[in-house]
Amino acid sequence: MANEKIGLDDIIGRHFYQAPSKHESIYPLARFDRLLKGSIAISDFIAEEIGKDTVPTPAAKLWFLWAATVFAILCKADIPVKNPNRKELLTGPVIVLETRFFLLAVSHG
Asked: What angle do CA 6, 9, 15 make, to 5 degrees?
């Protein structure tokens, strides 16, 4: 049973679609505990599902390495890639990378 796959409907049914037990009727924090555990179980389930869909392929890993190399070269040449007032990238270098990635995907696709 430990290896049995638990689905989202199972989690919701177990934690949210139950009438309060006698214990939970007397102690509302016990019901709150069940609901919090259900919320945690849902977040764990969703995080696991997202993780399954984002397993990087070797090509994706190489693309990120290439993008990091391009950003390093731009920084070394004193070409800004990051907004100085924020923790985000400037749009120019990102557009260049997106365009280049699209061209590579089309030529190899």
From this structure: 90
DSSP 78: T
Give pLDDT tens digits along the chain (109 positions).
455 678 889 999 998 888 999 999 999 999 999 999 999 999 888 888 877 766 667 776 777 777 778 778 877 888 777 777 777 777 777 777 677 665 555 555 5
Report the domain count for the chain. 2
**Which residue's structure tokens are 């590579």?**
104
Q: Which domain holds residue 77?
A: 58-108
62 and 21 in a common domain: no
63 and 47 together in one domain: no
Contact (Cβ atoms closer than 8 angstroms) between residue 41 and residue 11: yes
DSSP-based helix, strand, coil % in the chain, nearest 5: 70, 0, 30
In 3D space, the residue among 66, 72, 75, 69 whose CA is nearest the CA of residue 104 turns out to be 66
Q: Taking the model in full, what pTM does it have?
A: 0.47
